[in-house]
Amino acid sequence: MSLSALCLALPGALNAQTMVKFATLAPDGSTWMKAMRQFTDETTARTGGRVKFKIYAGGVSGDEKDVVRKIRLGQLQAGGFTGVGIGEIAPEARLLDTPFLFKNAKEIDHIYKTFDADFRKIFESRGYVLLGWAEVGNVNIFSNVPVTKPEDLRNVKMWIWEGDPIAEATFAALRIKPIPLSITDVMTSLQTGMINGVYGSPLSVIALQWFARMKYVFALPLTNASGAVVISRKSFDTLSKEDQKTMLELGEKYFRALTLASRKENEQSVGILKKKNLIFTEPASPAVVTELERAGNEARAALVGKLYSRELLDKVEAALKAFRASKK
Could you tell me the residue range of the domain that residue 301 belongs to? Predict the structure, then answer.
């Protein structure tokens, strides 16, 4: 019998003080959900059954905006989110999702570590506690026609996650007019031909089975997509200080491990996609990379005052500039 099962079997655990109902789009059996269940099992064990979880995986509780709404209504207490859900809670954190901001994993880790306390305060001011960052990973554009420059995207019926301001600003800067849909409508729309272009991490595009409808992948990542696990502060505050500490420690442990695992699996997923005969295309020239980075700057500037302040943007960009200079 596992430690978690043993603790659940103890008489004292039968009257859990807190039941945390948790929802996510991540499908059961995915790396994401395996990490989540490890986190919930150990949290329940370490708290002697005082904290239990009921998990709603695979989007059964709706899109991320639905999950946030249900947390606010008290129907759910926690969720695992990508940027869209994070933006409903702490729009400032969407800065981390903006296009062509990071060049590698070291830059990502440096910025997340440097600004961790700042973002935790923002989450708490909105009534949530950040249990951990869980990176979705590099996001690529998938299509049925080859893409090597922004103009090529004008021949693609590109999907955009409905209501996502980052994606809206990104495609506007690229002069693209995408088709807005809920993420839960993407597969049907690919099957009907309403869209023939999507974006996502290689791992997620395989997990969602979108890759089966695609022929090409633009190799240069559009962005690095953030992910986070949060719990309502109202629910968190019902826990003892000891149990709060346990939950935060385990969140750091499991969701950092998940980020590293996701990076590895995204790399492996690139290999799988190539074996599935998807063709990876590179930018047509260095000038195209410069053009894309310029579009990223334009998108970030367009979101000042809408999602985050100029001060926060300047701080993050200055920290990145200093970090890059230190590595030369």
Answer: 138-224+268-326
For residues 91 and 127, membership in a common domain is answered with yes
- Cα(54)–Cα(131) distance, rounded to whole angstroms? 17
Same-domain check for residues 298 and 164 = yes
pTM of the model: 0.87
* Residue 8: per-residue pLDDT: 45
Provide the mean pLDDT of the chain: 93
Angle between helix axes 165-173 and 286-302 (nearest 10 degrees) is 130
Q: Are residues 153 and 237 in the same domain?
A: no
Low-confidence ranges of the chain (pLDDT < 50): 1-15
Report pLDDT for 327. 86
If one counts the domains in the chain, the total is 2
How far is CA 88 from each of CA 81, 123, 154, 178, 217, rounded to the nearest angstrom? Answer: 10, 11, 29, 21, 29
Write down the pLDDT at residue 277.
97
Element counts in the chain: helices (H) and strands (E): 13, 11
pLDDT in tens, 65-87: 999 999 999 999 999 999 989 99
3-class DSSP state of 204: helix
List the CATH number of the domain containing 318: 3.40.190.170
Residue 16: the pLDDT is 53
Q: What are phi and psi of 143, to 5 degrees?
A: -155, 175
77 and 153 within one domain: no
Widest CA span in the chain: 67
User: Which tokens sit at 296?
Assistant: 């990223």
CA-CA distance, 34 to 1, in Å (whole number)?
19
Roughly what angle, to the nearest 10 degrees, separates helices 105-114 and 310-326?
130
> Are 310 and 304 contacting, i.e. CB atoms less than 8 angstroms apart?
yes
Instruction: Verify that 306 and 161 share a domain, yes or no.
Output: yes
